[in-house]
Specification:
Elements lengths: L2 E2 L6 E2 L2 H15 L3 H33 L5
Antiparallel strand pairs: 1-2
Helix pairs in contact: 1-2
């Protein structure tokens, strides 16, 4: 899937990369510690969620190919 960022000038084929780029841009524009800390925590949580989704997809794929666990 191809996604355009807010500036419409970069193409990103990975939603996580696109999200991280937007958050990094917001961190650079942030002017107080609380906002920066929140954005960094959000970025970390999104990365962790993405990792867990990939793990769950792998598990589902493994189960679907193992006829003994159906």
């Amino acid at each position: 899937m191809i996604i355009f960022n807010s500036r419409k000038d970069l193409l990103m084929d990975d939603n996580l990369s696109w999200t991280e780029a937007i958050i990094d841009e917001a961190v650079q524009k942030a002017n107080n510690y609380a906002t920066i800390a929140l954005l960094k925590k959000i970025k970390a949580e999104i990365a962790e969620t993405d990792k867990r989704i990939a793990q769950a997809q792998g598990k589902l794929d493994g189960i679907s190919w193992n006829h003994e666990e159906w």
